[in-house]
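Fold this complex.
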Amino acid sequence: MTSGGRGADWPRRMVRAISSLASPTAAARTATLPVAGDPRRTPTHAWGRRLLRALGRREVWQGIAGVAIVLAIWQIASSLRLPMFTFIPTPVQIGRSLVDVAQTRQYWQSWYVSGTRVFLGYAIGVGLGVPLGLAMGISRSFFGTAFPVIELLRPIPPLAWIPLSILFWPTIEQTVVSIIFLGAFFTVVINVLGGVEAIDVNYRRAALSMGARPWHIFWRVVLPATAPSIFTGMAVGMGLTWEIVVAAEMVASIQAGLGFMMWQSYVGGSIALIIVAMISIGLAGLICSSFIWALGRRATPWRRRV
Amino acid sequence: MTRGALRIENVGKVYDPEGAHVVAVEEVSLDIPSGEFCVVVGPSGCGKTTLLNIVAGFDDLTSGTIAMDGTLLAAPGKRLAPGADRMVVFQNGALFPWKTVLWNVICGPVLHGRLSRDEAEARARALLAQVGLVEVEGQYPGELSGGMKRRVEIVRALMNDPAVLLLDEPFRALDALTKGVMHECLLQLHDLAAKTVLFITHDLEEAIFLADRVVVMTTRPGRVKKVIEVDLPRPRDYLVLSTPRYLELKAEALEAIREEALKAFEAGERELA
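Structure:
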């Protein structure tokens, strides 16, 4: 890492620093220059040590400073009673209501319910999207058949499917999961397809020269070559699912979840709780995405993250 | 056992015969005896790479035949699938970035069951050491320099024990110094293994330094313009580059290729106009 590119690169390194908490090897790899293997092997399984090391890194403090500055401006603007801030609680008030609500079972129930919906829809979306994208990339005739359908359906926003889904699925729960599925599915398909199409033809040729059979080509060339795109698609898709679950919970009169909690707080006039719900959704998305990025880094160790 | 004798007879390749009808290669005949280092030079777009792709089995030809050791490799409407008997080293490199150097090098023989994993590893380490690569076997190709990658790739090709080694401008992207080192390294390997080599380049000095025979091709459509026997003694090192005989051969080749380069240049101008 040269000092020249530091300014523009900090958000990526920030994400890396955060997700390094979840993945010790990735942290070690990015923290050391690729000299010899030694520092990478240091066992660092203790959570506390990882946390300590993260706190020793500049990017983490830069990130914390950014959040703190925003909160400080907000706090000051609220206490000065600026016109737009009349109805907006201060960060301190929000913090208090977060502490209060965190002691209720209902709040964590909302996390659990939304999380389960996201997990189900997302897992099905990735589970179907990855094979479909691969198949479209490999077979020209399958591509010819499937691509027009995908491209016709893809521009339709997932939320536009809600009315039809309500009629189609027997339960509202299934409706919400199916909407989330759509968001993840199309993103993953398109990314995987693009990944397969971008494979250098010479990898295939080299494999053929070495006597590779079709299954070798698939498992040893196509799949690893596409892996980075698969994880990019998965990470982008993960972000979308949290956007969708909240909107779906607000639209499809459902009785639990973070989106429902937000809607209820709005109807009930509790502005602090609206913001608590918003922050919770942001956090949930961040945690899930970091997890996917960390998983991707682990699965594709050959990629240099400079 | 001698193998790797390539017989290329009246080979022609037309792209898009019904439509644009672009003649890439026309009536190319070449007889490459077993163990010869044959270098094909020509201006860009003269069909050198096309010729190599046809020999490798990546592309079809539209006329003529190619045979190796009496086996037909390609004829119109027919081609023998690519195989370990004709290994290719590509212009931009095709090491699998997701696998370590060692695995890249041994994957062919191991997956094919020609060698056990231990045998393959031992042979790979010996070959890697021979080209000056030690302690990189656990690294990923992305962590190596351009010159190192090229060496690994040549080793990977040799591990498959090809009858003929096909190199498509393998050193194009390297700086001049690295290139010089790579040339000597390749010559050493060739002196040891005595494989037939078909080497494609547009770099004349490289061609003469490496070759037993330099084949100069014309600009599109690619034909054989001139064949120059390079009678410089082997083993060669960089000192050869300043001998009168080398300079003589270079002048001869330069004259032949300059005309073609000019034609290619003018053709390019016409296409743009």
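Chain B has a mean pLDDT of 88.
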